[in-house]
Records
---
Amino acid sequence: MVRVRLMTDDDVPAVSAIRVAGWRAAYAGLVPRSYLDAMDAAEDTAARRRSLAAGGGRVRNLVAVEAAAAGGGGGSGGDGGSVVGWAAFGPYRGQPGTGADGELYALYVRPDRIGTGAGRALTAEVVRHAAEAGRRRLLLWVLADNHRARRFYGRAGFTADGLEMTEVYDGVPLRELRYARAL
């Protein structure tokens, strides 16, 4: 059983490990290997802790936690469970914090826990929180070639809205698509 709650400082090392492992699993063959190899969970932990401490309430972080017996090895959230997923969301970048749109900035599940419902549970909670905050739409960006993620978001009610951008990773331009879901 997966439970979703707000992330705490105790969760940060597990979240950073999930983020790095998630990038390496999801983007293998899409993002340059050199970029993925350079990712470091300890550096990510330090940066994430600084970001969490700076806070300001703009970005909300949620974690998916499994009972200790079911998860194993994912890092304890301090509540007897194993952190198996993480999502970050807030106002859409480029709009004031009070804008009508929210954005799902990140959603990662421990690679060995993909398909267990953790991603669906996190997405449902992000949608709920965004709606409660008065957002009318939830937006996200996904690599065009990340077909698995695009199918996942499609099943969660998101559709491509026609906007695209290009991000450069170690000199390689990669196309991203914007997806939207009405709340």
---
Amino acid sequence: MKYIVPGFPIQRMRRLRENPTVREMVRENHLRPEDLIYPLFVVPGENVNNPVSSMPGVSQLSIDLLVKEAVDAVKAGVKAVEIFGIPPEKDGFGSGAYDPNGIVQEAVRAVRKACPDLYIITDVCLCQFTDHGHCGIVEGHRVLNDPTLAYLGRAAVSHAQAGADMVAPSDMMDGRVSAIRAALDEAGFNHIPIMSYSAKYASAFYGPFREAAESTPQWGDRRSYQMDPGNSNEALRETALDIQEGCDIIMVKPGLSYMDIIYRLKQDFGMPVAVYNVSGEYAMVKAAAANGWIDEKKTVLEILLSFKRSGADMIITYHAKDVVRWLAE
């Protein structure tokens, strides 16, 4: 304890709990619409709405329906989205990721036109675009780090050219922040921030996302480049490197099982911290709520507030559209 306070009956903690107004006045952490980022999945075609079976309420959307969803989200009070793309064709070099007319780039242009004030973040990775499902260029069954970096830089630049406000590299290749920063700066986009997935774990909670993004590895797993769930000091080293390379926001992914990491990164670096409330966490809440085991609204708000309490400044969550409506009630 930093200080000693008098005990009962002089101190009665319930004095500041019995009235809802004073509870709000002394609340230490708050959840706001500005804290939330809404992930969206875009696919080729027109009038395409493919529900993700493991994520009730989430769909892959063609660009026309993605625009409608973005407009609806803005009306609800959402301030920012993150766009993930699934291309019509995949190859060994993930060429759709950096195609100026690729699915993400076209989606960014369309959403920007319809929602000029919406903050658009794009995922920068190759896994959705490669035929092997890994986040980098491969040789045999080995993911090559350094040859991948130039492709990530090209993807980031193409997103900025399309109108993205921020890029978010999620690949976990060593040196990718530096490569992306250099590519953006050289192309005249030194004002575009980088939100780095700086502490991304090789987690079991990603299963539903891989269905949504069609990015399941065709062989092996991602443990050679994503972090081992048993490590915490490694997260500090990873994050320190990303900061040195020029990232503007650091991220922890997943959220619920890694709130100690959120806290440590905030305390050690004082940087803006994002957390990804990932697909598996979302799916568990939805399944329990559908069975009547929990109150979905109260549970979601408690989870997101716990991220804020741990030190997160912003939260990427599939619940975002519902939450902004709940907060407005």
---
Amino acid sequence: MAMIRFEGVTIAYQKQTVLENVNLEIEKGIITTFLGPNGSGKTSLISSINGTIKPVCGKIYIDDKDISKLKTKKLAGIVATVPQLYNTNFNFTVLEMILLGRSPHIGYVPGKDDIDKADEAIEKIGIEYLRDKEFNRLSGGERQLVMIARAIAQDTEVILLDEPTSYLDLKNQLKVLNVVKQINSSQKVTCIMTLHDPNHALMYSDKIVMFKNGTLETGTIEDMINARNIYEVYGVKADIVKVNNKKFVIPDY
């Protein structure tokens, strides 16, 4: 069953077309990863789902609802976003940052239920030790975990993650991706990620959307991550090898 559907979507900036006539369905309750080189339109397409970017033509449907007809607050109750890197000029605590995710559900002041939801998200991510610390004083990996907790507290059907491993060391990359996998499996939230590393996509995805010179191809990780596609997308020769029943992309240096 399709959770998100693109019908004839074209995205352009100042008359320069980034993606043209996109027709794509994203399944409900799985992890779909967008793979492609820089500038291929991955972030643009993910931003069109939360309404940050408006297509110049075409329609986007979430659960059969045309998002162009949804008010911002209504859409925020359906889709949460974890950006690449988030900074704030305010000295919010971690709890306060996560409570911002409750905005679609509250009026002016968070209630007890909102604080409980925030604390539940903090517990799920395992960042109780950060609850009262200043967000701006956290490391990049800690900030990403807080932003994922905020997305969980937002209590949506879809979570978008734009380059969630950017600026993180290997340990924190794996921690963040494991958290995404855990959220998807335990809560059946539809997760859409943009990633650079095909190996991360192999390890943490159910479906792949590959961005090739303005066109999109989609399929399972078995179908999409192969030597031919890696070369066509990145211009890099690579072998696909199996170690302990796990597949890896090994580039030809």
